[in-house]
Predict the 3D structure of the following.
Amino acid sequence: MDKNAVIATGGYDHTIRLWSPTKGACKRTLQHGESQINALDISPDGTYIAAAGLDNVRVFDTQSNIPSASYSYEGHVGNVTAVGFSRDGSWMYTGGDDESVKIFDIRTTHGPQRNFDQQSPVTCVALHPNQAELISGDKDGRMVRWDLRANQCIEHLIPAVDVAIRSVSISPDANLVAAVNDDGNCYVWQLTGHDLCALKMLQSHTPAYVLQCKFSPDSKLLATTSSDTTAKVWDATKDFELTHELREHGAWVWDCAFTVDSSMLMTGCSDNVARLWDLSTSACMQEFKGHQRAITAVALRE
């Protein structure tokens, strides 16, 4: 991992911690006193960290010594469950319990520029590599595909009726979409033209909840995390064969993030510890300790 990588974790202790990638030591602690952190993302240039919490998204300056947020983006009511930056860092997308998906211009804090009505509490949102589409998942088990140019829904899917979708991921090469749900299953679609074509269903963590799924930067791997205290890595080039089962967690594994070369995976866990795993050996290379309560979000930018 690059020695200048930005590593961030957040959780139920209302703090965000920035970590040394080489020593595993906490470099800074940012205060998020209003609520727990539900999701994190780091801007493409590594300058800002966006934290999704209760009613808003707070953005912190990674270069500043001030522990409080630099900006606050209002517009949601209730928990904001998803947040991410566009590729150029000029806007953010969010989703929340208020049944909405929103777009915020990073340059202004005067509320969202666009709103999309999901008609069910939103649990996750993923941005297509083309920067012109979002896919959101909700508690009713629906996935909705939004066209940002036309400002409308262009497709919706229901992998399992009334089974909440917990995470959606789109491969960086734009060929695959994955989603995981409360039944412990992972669904994979081929993204061809304007339609999603069902490709595979993995009983990835049945009967436990699957909490997160992420494609690797090279699009060859898919990671899933679960309430069964494991993270698993699947090979997308070999019909999603299970290649790694990471078992040293002490509780629910809420989130994960790959390094830019796809060789390592970072996980965040309810045992208050984040871990960095070497995917060539399945060994835990580093533990990041300091949070006082569950780690629910991790983000990494190199």
